[in-house]
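Translate structure to sequence.
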């Protein structure tokens, strides 16, 4: 079993997540603030806690699976667990400044 720097693995995960978009909003899910927590072990096991913009989001079935597949593709990642949480509920204040600019909210 190989061991890697969890911080470097996390950076790779974040880069990958910035390629995943909510189908209704032209901003990636990381900048939208849909990713609540990323935990990575030195052995490449990742746990992602994420939310959706709404419990009734049309992408509710699709987006967590896409996150799992995307993170699994990061070099050095061995396994991925994705948990969807609505606590706390997502709100627009979770978006990055970059996302707000892209959406014309600033």
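Result:
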């Amino acid at each position: 079993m190989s061991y890697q720097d969890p911080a470097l693995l996390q950076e790779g995960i974040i880069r990958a997540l910035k390629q995943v978009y909510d189908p209704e909003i032209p901003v990636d899910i990381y900048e939208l603030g849909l990713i609540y927590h990323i935990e990575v072990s030195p052995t490449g096991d990742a746990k992602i806690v994420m939310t959706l913009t709404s419990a009734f989001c049309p992408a509710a079935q699709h987006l967590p699976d896409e996150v799992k597949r995307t993170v699994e593709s990061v070099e050095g990642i061995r396994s991925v667990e994705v948990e969807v949480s609505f606590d706390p509920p997502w709100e627009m204040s979770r978006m990055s400044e970059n996302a707000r600019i892209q959406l014309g909210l600033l």
